[in-house]
């Protein structure tokens, strides 16, 4: 995916917020970065993003790979993020979901096989499979799908994306030990029809976080923020209103 995955939300979010959207290293339009691959490394890079844009306690919206990144970050820097909207992610151990997802997380041999296909072939297969699983209602236009594809076929991108998922077994169990101490408000959302990442990952995460809520995005698959935009957007607006009112 890339920041274009939020294209259907931009105008309404812009009525209420100053928006900053960033593709993480190795994703979307950002450069490949061999030194920013694991969850830990992405969490450290998130701090650089906040510094660069001079963001003070922003509300963070980051499902999928954004969720382990921000949870790892707020465990060490709780004062820097006002609230989190995330989910549809493998943030508990062992991760549960589609066989392909579990193999990407747990099998170095499978990850190596995907990478060995080469960025053009491997990246295209990776993106096509993800898009087939990711949508239940939404049918993104060709230009957007091309952008998603380019984000995984650029030099070094696929290696970094596979490496991110492959870092879960070593990092997620350690992250889970920190969840009970995280006081940052977290809204965990998950698509009703997400078969790629099982909903149990999100329900268990919400149970482990002491200041969290969980909700289902109806009739949406893995990319629930894009597949069920209106419901997802309303959750963001209602959630941030409540957090702001309580500050």
Mean pLDDT: 92
Q: Architecture, according to CATH?
A: 3-Layer(aba) Sandwich
Which geometry do the CA atoms define? globular
Describe the main β-sheet briefly: 4 strands, parallel
Radius of gyration: 17 Å
> Count the strands?
4
Intertermini distance: 33 Å
Describe it.
This protein is an alpha/beta fold. It has a single domain, classed as 3-Layer(aba) Sandwich (Rossmann fold), CATH 3.40.50. 52% of the residues lie in helices and 8% in strands. It is built from 12 helices and 4 strands. The chain has helices at 10-14, 39-52, 66-76, 99-106, 108-116, 119-134, 142-153, 157-166, 168-178, 199-208, 224-227, 229-246, and strands at 59-61, 83-87, 186-191, 212-217. A 4-stranded parallel β-sheet has the order 1-2-3-4, with helices on both faces. Strand 3 (186-191), helix 10 and strand 4 (212-217) form a beta-alpha-beta unit. Helix 5 packs antiparallel against helix 8 (157-166). It is globular. The two termini are 33 Å apart. The mean pLDDT is 92.
Q: What can be said about this structure in brief?
A:
Helix content is 52%, strand content 8%.
SSE order and pairing:
Layout: H1 10-14, H2 39-52, E1 59-61, H3 66-76, E2 83-87, H4 99-106, H5 108-116, H6 119-134, H7 142-153, H8 157-166, H9 168-178, E3 186-191, H10 199-208, E4 212-217, H11 224-227, H12 229-246
Parallel strand pairs: 1-2, 2-3, 3-4
Helix pairs in contact: 2-3, 5-8, 6-7
